[in-house]
């Protein structure tokens, strides 16, 4: 029984070695560049975190508009972005933090912004209206309630997170 010995020629050995070493060197050079290129995308943005907005003692039964600013990282671009919310306490003393962004086409709604509807949110763009709890008034342009912010109260301060869409009218 004869066994044929597998031999690697000098040419093949050089090919394998040079390909391996070349590949390793290319990977060593490219890895830091790739990491540098996508680094901002990997960093967490602060815009999704809970932000301190107002002392709870300042919240009344009438909706008030509060603003806060966050650093927003958009890839390589960092900017200050101002957010706002309409906040009030309902009859059960629960905090209701509503997004001011109209669910029709994104204008900003105002509380009691129209003399004819003094206890409703009013959107001046197309006469959209919402009840105090943020639910849209039927037969007006918006077709969904105002978003509700995620929130928590810590040490007497109201923190707001992301606005969350609600099901409804
Ligand atoms: S954007 Fe508010 S009613 Fe159209």
What does this structure look like?
- The structure is a single chain.
- The chain has 1 helix and 9 strands; from the N terminus they run αβββββββββ.
- With 169 residues, the chain is an alpha+beta fold.
- It has one helix spanning 10-42, and strands at 51-55, 64-74, 77-89, 95-98, 110-111, 121-123, 128-130, 148-154, 157-164.
- The N and C termini lie far apart (86 Å).
- Helix content is 20%, strand content 33%.
- It has a single domain (46-164), classed as Rieske Iron-sulfur Protein (3-layer Sandwich), CATH 2.102.10.10.
- Bound molecules: FE2/S2 (inorganic) cluster.
- FE2/S2 (inorganic) cluster is lined by residues 102, 104-107, 123, 125-126, 128, 141-142.
- The chain crosses the membrane at residues 12-34.
- Keywords: 2Fe-2S, Disulfide bond, Iron, Iron-sulfur, Membrane, Metal-binding, Transmembrane, Transmembrane helix.
- This is Ubiquinol-cytochrome c reductase iron-sulfur subunit.
- Residues 87-160 form the Rieske domain.
The gist of it:
By secondary structure, this protein is of the alpha+beta class. The chain is 20% helix and 33% strand.
What's the story with the biggest beta sheet?
3 strands, antiparallel
- Give the radius of gyration: 29 Å
Class from helix and strand fractions: alpha+beta
Give the CATH class: Mainly Beta
Domain Rieske: 87-160
Pfam families: Rieske
Protein name: Ubiquinol-cytochrome c reductase iron-sulfur subunit
Transmembrane segments: 12-34
Main features:
169 residues, alpha+beta, Rieske Iron-sulfur Protein, three-stranded antiparallel beta sheet, 1 helix, binds FE2/S2 (inorganic) cluster
